[in-house]
Design goal:
The protein has one helix and four strands, in the order E-E-E-E-H. The radius of gyration is 12 Å and the shape is globular. It has a four-stranded antiparallel β-sheet with strand order 1-2-3-4, with helices on one face. The chain has 62 residues and is of the alpha+beta class. Helix content is 18%, strand content 29%. The protein has one domain (7-61). Strand 3 and strand 4 (43-45) form a beta hairpin.
């Protein structure tokens, strides 16, 4: 059985999270596996993005 996990994180130079996409298991369970952590602390359902989409999102934050 193959297990694939991922995390794409963008953070400010002071360590503040801007966003992170991942598929880590949460406790309590989220009700979905793939998700995004936002700057305001929300966790929303989001599928695995293409790397080009990650780069575009980073550019939008600049």
């Amino acid at each position: 059985m193959q297990k694939l996990s991922y995390a794409y994180q963008y953070q400010a130079s002071n360590g503040e999270l801007i966003f992170r996409y991942d598929n880590a298991v949460h406790r309590p369970a989220l009700g979905f596996k793939e998700h995004k952590h936002t700057k305001d602390g929300a966790i929303i359902e989001a599928s695995l993005p293409d790397i080009s989409d990650i780069v575009d999102e980073v550019i939008e934050c600049l």
